[in-house]
Amino acid sequence: MKVVIFCGGFGLRMRSGVDSAPKPMMTIGDRPVLWHVMRYYAHFGHTEFILCLGFGGSAVKEYFLRYEETVSNDFVMTKGGQRIELLDSDISEWKITFVDTGIDTSIGERLRRVRPYLEDDDAFLANYGDVLTDAPMDKIVDHVMTSDITASLLAVPPQASFHVVEFDNDSRVTGLRSAADLNVWINGGYFVIKKEIFDVLHEDEDLVGDAFPRLSAMRKLEAIPHHGFWAPMDTLKERSQLEELYRSGKKPWALWSHEARQQNGKLVDKAPVVVAI
């Protein structure tokens, strides 16, 4: 199943000075958050990506055109570096389509502009390119494909760092509660969408703000509640928190790292990939 990733946003809350890179290219460890999202999908066998580019699109293209497998994979070097044997590979099986969808384009219009690359597909996956999760995407896809809904969105609790303030008519505070303790769910940015979406998504419209309310009125939109790990990277604080998890070795979103190195407690054997340079 193809994965459409919206990676052309400005990411103004992430910026600390002049920076030409879009938010999905901000790094966690040695790789951009976009790479982490793509590796998540690849873990479930979805290795065909359509990147909806906008602001900083050249940075995304340049990154993958000059991609270095040795940065995130173990390898054996011989002949003074003339021969490299990769012990694992990230993107050798990936197919990536890079599409310029405009600078100030809405998410819905970005999706409409890559429709020609989805014509042969009954359904596809979509993502904002800057949120991480450990949600069981295989089970979600199976559920959506056997139901009569047109689209699903991952529903997650709001971040615990926000607090809801309750006060009386005199503005005296009567209570403070963490937003995470309320029975409130937010859009987690992971979508499974069938091609019928294009029947309700019109030119220059937003996907969530315009098309989804129509699907909701038709009872064709489903929320998939997820109580596990989910984290956005909208701010420098959130990026720092993800960096801390990465450095500690606690990377709940990195499902591939668990399966790639062990299966039932044993190492998985993989044939080396030879790269001559």
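^ that was protein a. below is b, sequence first then the tokens
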Amino acid sequence: MVRVRETAWTPAERTEPDPDVAERAAALADLMRGRRTVILTGAGISTPSGIPDYRGPDSPGRTPMTFQQFVGDPGFRRHYWARNHLGWRHMEAARPNAAHLLLADWERRGLVNGVITQNVDLLHLKAGSRQIVDLHGTYGVVTCLDCGQRRSRWALHEDLEALNPEFAQRVASRGAIEVAPDADAVLHDTADFRMVDCHGCDGMLKPDIVYFGENVPAARVAAANALVDDADVVVVVGSSLTVRSGYRFVRRAVTTGTPVAVVNRGRTRAHDEATVTIDGDCVEVLGLADAAL
């Protein structure tokens, strides 16, 4: 399964929340009650934690990096690592919000069987969820594309700091830094940044994040499919489902008769297929559903 962006990353149209959010949240609770529920999350669940999304109405237009750009252009790769060297710190400092914490609590209470997340921010893990499929990987691991050796992002950070002393301070002195999704930051002058190669084979290092144009590992797809196939309900939280690697799990549920609910600000690809749709803030809606449960 390839991570594919089928439309340009432009801000979504601003919508008004449903006027009957409480009633719709109660309908979500009714749909979940006594049933095995799997949650599929996207960037919208993490924006209250300070992590930007790609398509929110207030987001700037973005051009996400592709796998082909990363592996094919050393200059582009250096530019990416310089930005990541700053951006990953912001993601590491982010903390789960009430929506993440509530999903973890639902898992402990037996209301949720697992979470499939398109996010790379580790916030579900930090919140206490344990049955997690990180569909697009996480910011916390770096992989060698040649020998497959894996390292923690924290260890790589120390190496990059040693090669690029005071880089972060120099950049910060030029003004505010705009943080972008996927553990990235928006920078322009990165020509003097020095990269790190694999300690084992001098191969190319890459964050363990599935870029556009890259295959999602088969084991992750299988794990997500198993969760969906074992579920009685699939609830989408904070995703427009623009990326097909997430939307296909909705299609898998629908084709087998499993009801789908959607909690998101704005319309999604699944709206015409969903049993319940709620245009509202993830934290508010899930809190109302929890009260109804």
